[in-house]
Amino acid sequence: MRQRRRTMRALFSATVAATCLALATPAWASMNISINKDHKGATAGTFGTQDCKDERFGDLPDGYDGWHFVLPGGKEAGAFETLTLTFTNGVIIKVPDANDAYPDALYPAGQDDTRLIHAYLFTPAGWTLADGTATISGEAAKFNLSHTCAGTPGTPGTPTPTPSPSTPGGTASPSPSASETGPGTPGGSATPTPGTGGEGGTDGGLPLTGAAATTIALLGVALIGGGATMLVLRRRRNVTFIS
Q: What's the pTM value of the predicted model, to 2 decimals?
C-alpha cells in the first residue's frame, strides 16, 4: 500500500511539473497584421514624412521611390517575417524576395536588438500603395509606413530591373529590360534612421517563435515523463515481497 502511494505521488508530481512548464513557456506564434489604414493610398511624393537623408536611401537610383516600413510595439511585437505590399497598378511585392525586380531588405531594430522590425523597398517612382499585410513573430495591431523618399517618375510603364546581388555603389538607371542590372539592395548603416511614422524599439532579445516554444515544451514534458518512469521502475525493483 505504501509503495502504491509513493508511485501515485511521483506520477502526480510529474503531471503538475509538466503542466507548469507548458504554462510558463511563451506561446508566441506567427500572426498576420495589416498596415495602418491611414497609410493606405500613400505615394512616396505625397506621404507626410519624407526623409531622403536616411542612409538606406543613399543608393536610391533616379526614377525610383524609397519606402520604409516599421513594426511598432517593442519586444512583444516580435519581428517581421514577411510583408506583402499591393500597389494600385496591380503589382504585389513580397518582402524579402531576392528574385523579383524590386530591391528590398529587412533590418534589425538596433545594435543591441536583432529583431527585424525595419523593411525597406525600392519601386519605380509614382506608384501608389493600395494595401499591405505582414506576418510577424509576435503580437501587434498593425505596422506603419514610417517615411519615404520620392523619386522622379520616368517613362510610363512597369520597368522590371534585375536586382544586383551586392550592395549598390553607383547610380545605375533602371531599364524595362529584365536582363539589365538594376538597383541593388537598400544599404547603409546598421541602424536605420527612425521616422515619425512608427516606433523603432530598443529592447533586446531574440523573438521566440511558436515552433521553438513548442519544441522546448515537448522536450521538457518528455524529460519529466522519462524521469517519473525511471523513478517508478526503480521503486518497483526495490520492493521486497514477504511471504
A: 0.60
Same domain, 104 and 11: no
| Owning domain of residue 108 | 31-184
Residues 178 and 122 in one domain: yes
6 plus 51 within the same structural domain: no
- 3-state SS record for the chain: CHHHHHHHHHHHHHHHHHHHHHHHCCCCCCEEEEECHHHCCCECCCCCCECCCCHHHCCCCCCEEEEEEECCCHHHHCCEEEEEEEECCCCEEEECCCCCCCCEEEEEEECCEEEEEEEEEEEECCCEEEEEEEEECCCCCEEEEEEEECCCCCCCCCCCCEEECCCCCCCCCCCCCCCCEEEECCCCCCCCCCCCCCCCCCCCCCCCCHHHHHHHHHHHHHHHHHHHHHHHHHHHHCCCCCC
pLDDT along the chain (243 residues), means of 10: 54 49 54 98 97 95 97 96 98 97 95 92 98 97 98 59 38 39 62 44 40 52 58 54 48
